[in-house]
Design goal:
Layout lengths: L5 H9 L4 H6 L3 E5 L5 E4 L1 H11 L5 H4 L13 H14 L3 E6 L5 E12 L3 E13 L11 H4 L5 E5 L5 E3 L6 E3 L3 H4 L4 E5 L2 H7 L1 H4 L5 H6 L3
Parallel strand pairs: 6-9
Antiparallel strand pairs: 1-2, 1-5, 3-4, 4-5, 7-8
């Protein structure tokens, strides 16, 4: 465990966590300072970050990192707004998000609450784990259908489906092989369903061009 000062222990205690308990927790625990930079995360949070990005990131490497830099670009406006609301209003916020593997559908519940001096405590727990059902049939990884001529594979930042580019229209399919072995340079987007879920107010306006491009539409 990296050495943490008394201030971190005090902030965690103010949010209802003793440092020793946070270290043993199965839930991911992350403490952000007023600038939304990571000042503490436990081992469970470290493991979730590894599952999310596919790359190892130690707690030492995560320390001091802006939390929004760990969020896929198309989702940053959503989380930035929610974090700001919690800081200003002090009301807890909960949100379910997907972090599926090729084999399992995994839904996590994120709880965010404010502690002293506009620090935020994030808790992330698995809410559901099940085999992928008939509503998400696995498709074969046919490179010509999913990878553009310049070698780009676009995947939804939330549900992790891949955008099919070879049918003359935009279709997002579940291609589990691409979660472990992408066939090209991965570009983060949002499928139509996830875009509408995260940005319903923008989806109804004629000024969605910027986020529309970020969403791969």
């Amino acid at each position: 465990m990296p050495p943490y000062g008394a201030e971190v222990g005090e902030r965690l205690a103010g949010a209802g966590w003793a440092l020793a308990d946070a270290e043993k927790a199965t839930a991911g625990i992350c403490l952000l300072n007023a600038d939304l930079r990571i000042v503490y995360c436990n081992g469970a949070w470290e493991r979730q970050e590894r599952e999310k990005s596919g790359a190892a990131a130690s707690r030492e490497e995560l320390s001091g990192v802006a939390i929004l830099d760990r969020v896929a670009e198309p989702l940053r406006p959503f989380y930035s707004r929610r974090f700001s609301e919690v800081k200003k209003q002090g009301q807890e916020w909960e949100h379910d998000y997907e972090l599926s593997s090729a084999e399992k559908l995994r839904m996590y519940r994120l709880k965010v609450k404010r502690v002293a001096d506009s620090y935020l405590l994030l808790e992330s727990r698995m809410a559901r784990e099940a085999a992928h059902g008939a509503e998400r049939p696995a498709m074969p990884a046919v490179k010509s259908l999913y990878v553009t001529e310049n070698g780009t594979l676009t995947m939804c930042s939330h549900c992790r489906r891949a955008r099919c580019v070879g049918l003359g229209r935009t279709v997002w399919n579940w291609v589990p092989e691409y979660l472990s072995a992408p066939a090209g340079r991965v570009s983060q987007g949002l499928c139509r369903e996830c875009f509408a879920h995260f940005y319903p107010e923008i989806n109804r306006t004629p000024h969605a061009d910027g986020l529309g491009r970020a969403a791969g539409r």
